[in-house]
Amino acid sequence: MKVEIYSDIACPWCYVGKRRFERALAAYPGADTVEVAYRPYQLAPEASPEAEPLEPVLRRKFGDRVSEMHAHLAEVGSREGIAFDFANAKSVNTLLAHRLLHLAETEYGTTAQATLKNALLHAYFVEGGNVGDRDQLTELAVAAGLDRDRVTAYLASDEGTAEVQARISEAQLMGITAVPTFVFEGKWAVQGAQEASTFLQVLEQVAAETATPSPNTPTPNTPTADDCADGSCAI
Fold first, then answer.
1. Confidence (pLDDT) at 229
2. Which of 9, 19, 85, 187 is buried most deeply by CB count within 10 Å?
3. What is the pTM of this model?
4. Which run of H or E residues covers position 19?
């Protein structure tokens, strides 16, 4: 079974969704037959490549709702073992990090990509890291098993940019407007950081469906709110 997870490093619900999906996968008997790949999506493609404090950026977009959103996410995160630190988080354009994730998958495999994805989310939301900084990205990539010289040369070039941007365009054509969105076997889409029990049920249902091919091809749901307060982050 192939699961493609569309997400952005700058999305807190993507971090929560990753943790919950991984718990579901650990409980799924056929886990060793599931291939998970992370696909790029940018909530704020216009974000500056220079890091700046996250909270003021979000307040310009959401106003005073930010405090309530972060309090809710902090509570959810604590249950998932994530110590969100929004006060120290830095807003920055995530294209460079998505390019690095593309390199990880294409040259090192999906396991290395998942390890790097987790490191990027942790750096962004817990450590106050700058995921737009080439030096910091290099250290995270090397820790995930990527070759230092390859990463350095890759980040200094435009390699992977066209591929990542094409993936983002494909996601938009599919109707994805919020992340995380989990696409199973290229057919079934589940939006938002669902509970682990829900993801487990979906894994079981998709396994049953693929055993007997179905003509139905559901498409992603459209988000009802332009915020990060309901299990997903919308553009």
1. 52
2. 9
3. 0.91
4. helix 12-27
Q: How far apart are CA 94 and CA 14, in angstroms?
A: 14
State phi, psi for 162 to the nearest 5 degrees.
-60, -40
The secondary structure of 25-88 as a DSSP string is HHH-TTGGG-EEEEEE--S-TT--SS-EEHHHHHHHHHTTHHHHHHHHHHHHHHHTT----TTT
User: Measured between alpha carbons, how far is 235 from 231 in angstroms, rounded to an integer?
Assistant: 14
Give the integer Cα–Cα distance in Å for 149 and 135: 12
Which amino acid makes up residue 53?
Answer: P
Cα–Cα nearest to 6, from 20, 163, 222, 14: 14
Q: Which domains does the chain have, with CATH numbers?
A: 2-234 (3.40.30.10)
Give the distance from CA 46 to its chain's centroid.
18
Token look-up 């980040």 returns: 155
C-alpha to C-alpha distance for 125 and 5, rounded to whole angstroms: 19
